[in-house]
C-alpha cells in the first residue's frame, strides 16, 4: 500500500468541463439602494471610468450617486419583468444559460452564468464550478464586439477570483465574434425577419451600438472599428447600400465627447431629411436590457415620432431565440475544441 498524506484523502468530485457565460450585470431591484449599489460597483470600475480616482471619487459619491439611482431606477421600473421580479438582462441571460445547458446535455459540461457587477457574482459562480469539479473552464463574455470596458473587465473579474484559488482550474476565454460569418448570418436573418413582420418597409435601418468616450478609441480600444465592421458585413450579407444601414452610438454618459453619430440626435434629425420610417436594432447587446428596451424601443421611438417620424420599429436582440442559441452553441463548441 502506498503512503498517502493525509491518510483520509477527501473524496473529489468527478472532473468536468465548465462554460461560464459572462454579462454586464443589473440591479437586484428598482429601488434607490439596489440601483445605487449596482451603479457604485459599475462606475467604480477603472476599466469603465478612466478619470483619476482622486477626482472621480467625490464626483461619483457626492454627485452621480445622489441623483442617478432615482433616474435609472425609474427607467428600470418601466422595463422590469414583474412576473419574475427581475431585470430583463438577467432573465434573458438565464434563459440563454438554460438553453445552452440543454444543448450540451450528456457531455458532462456544467453551464453557468455570472455578472461583472451585481449578482450572481463572478466569484461566487466560479467557486461553485470549481467545487463541482470543473477543472477546465471556458469564459464566454457575451459581447460581440470587444471593448476594454466590457470584455476585458469581465475577464479581469474572473481572473481576480482565480487568483485566490489554491487549486485553480485551467481557463480559456472566448474571443469577440463581431465578424464571425455565422454570427453575421444570424443577425442578418433577424433583420430580414424583423422587417418581414412589420406593416411598413423602413426607409433606413439603424444599427445602434452602445457608446464609449472617444478618448478610449484614441488610446487603442478596437470597439469602434469592430462595430463598423459588423455593420459593413451585415450590409454585404443583406446586399444593402451604405445609406440603407446606418451606424450610430447610444447611451452617452457624462460631459466628454462620445463616439458619434449619436443615436438620439440621428433619430431627431432623420424626419427632417425625409426619412419617416425606421427600424432599429442594437448589435452590441446579446440580450435586451435597459439600454435597448427603455432607451431605444421607448425613448428613441418618442423622439423620432416627436420630430415628425411616422413609423418606428425596434428589432430585438438575438436573446435566447433558436437561431441566436444555434450561434452561441456553435461558438462554444468551437472554443471547447480539444477539451470535450
Ligand atoms: C460610463 C461609461 C460607460 C461605458 C464606457 C459603457 C460601455 C458599454 N456598456 C455596454 C453594455 C451595457 N451597458 C449597460 C448599462 C449602463 N452602461 C453605463 C455606462 C457605460 N457603459 C451605465 C451607467 C449603465 C447603467 C444604466 C444607467 O444608469 O443608464 C447595460 C444594461 C444593464 C441592464 O441592467 O439592463 C449593458 C448591457 C457595452 C456593450 C459597452 C461598450 C462600449
Ligand atoms: Fe454601458
Ligand atoms: Fe442608457
Automatic annotation (TrEMBL):
Its EC number is 4.98.1.1. Its main location: cytoplasm. Pathway: Porphyrin-containing compound metabolism; protoheme biosynthesis; protoheme from protoporphyrin-IX: step 1/1. It is found in: Cytoplasm. One of its GO terms (cellular component) is cytoplasm. Fe(2+) binds at residues 210, 291. GO terms for biological process: heme biosynthetic process. Pfam families: Ferrochelatase (PF00762). PROSITE patterns: FERROCHELATASE. One of its GO terms (molecular function) is ferrochelatase activity. It catalyses: heme b + 2 H(+) = protoporphyrin IX + Fe(2+); Fe-coproporphyrin III + 2 H(+) = coproporphyrin III + Fe(2+). Belongs to the ferrochelatase family. This is Ferrochelatase.
Amino acid at each position: 500500500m502506498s503512503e498517502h498524506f493525509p491518510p483520509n484523502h477527501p473524496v473529489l468530485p468527478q472532473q468536468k468541463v465548465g462554460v461560464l457565460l459572462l454579462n454586464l450585470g443589473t440591479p437586484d431591484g428598482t429601488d434607490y439602494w439596489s440601483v445605487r449599489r449596482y451603479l457604485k460597483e459599475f462606475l467604480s470600475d477603472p476599466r469603465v471610468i478612466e478619470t483619476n480616482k482622486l477626482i472621480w471619487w467625490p464626483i461619483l459619491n457626492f454627485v452621480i450617486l445622489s441623483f442617478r439611482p432615482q433616474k435609472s431606477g425609474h427607467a428600470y421600473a418601466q422595463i422590469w419583468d414583474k412576473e419574475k421580479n427581475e431585470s430583463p438582462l438577467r432573465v434573458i441571460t438565464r434563459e440563454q444559460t438554460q438553453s445552452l445547458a440543454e444543448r450540451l446535455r450528456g457531455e458532462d459540461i456544467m453551464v453557468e452564468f455570472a455578472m461583472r457587477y451585481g449578482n450572481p457574482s463572478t466569484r461566487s459562480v466560479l467557486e461553485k464550478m470549481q467545487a463541482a469539479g470543473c477543472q477546465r473552464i471556458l469564459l464566454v463574455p457575451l459581447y460581440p464586439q470587444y471593448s476594454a470596458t466590457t470584455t476585458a473587465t469581465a475577464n479581469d473579474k474572473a481572473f481576480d477570483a482565480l487568483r485566490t484559488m489554491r487549486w485553480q482550474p485551467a481557463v480559456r476565454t472566448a474571443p469577440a465574434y463581431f465578424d464571425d460569418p455565422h454570427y453575421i448570418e444570424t443577425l442578418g436573418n433577424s433583420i430580414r425577419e424583423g422587417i418581414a413582420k412589420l406593416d411598413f418597409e423602413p426607409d433606413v435601418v439603424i444599427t445602434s451600438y452602445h457608446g464609449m468616450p472617444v478618448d478610449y478609441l484614441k488610446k487603442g480600444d478596437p470597439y469602434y472599428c469592430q462595430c463598423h465592421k459588423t455593420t459593413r458585413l451585415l450590409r454585404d450579407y443583406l446586399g444593402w447600400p451604405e445609406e440603407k444601414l446606418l451606424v450610430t452610438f447610444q447611451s452617452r454618459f457624462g460631459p466628454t465627447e462620445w463616439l458619434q453619430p449619436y443615436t438620439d440626435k440621428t433619430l431627431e434629425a432623420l424626419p427632417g431629411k425625409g426619412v419617416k420610417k425606421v427600424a432599429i436594432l442594437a448589435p452590441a447587446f446579446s440580450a435586451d436590457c435597459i439600454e435597448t428596451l427603455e432607451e431605444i424601443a421607448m425613448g428613441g421611438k418618442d423622439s423620432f415620432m416627436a420630430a415628425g417620424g411616422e413609423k418606428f420599429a425596434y428589432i430585438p436582440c438575438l436573446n435566447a431565440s433558436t437561431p441566436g442559441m444555434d450561434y452561441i452553441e456553435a461558438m462554444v463548441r468551437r472554443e471547447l475544441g480539444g477539451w470535450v
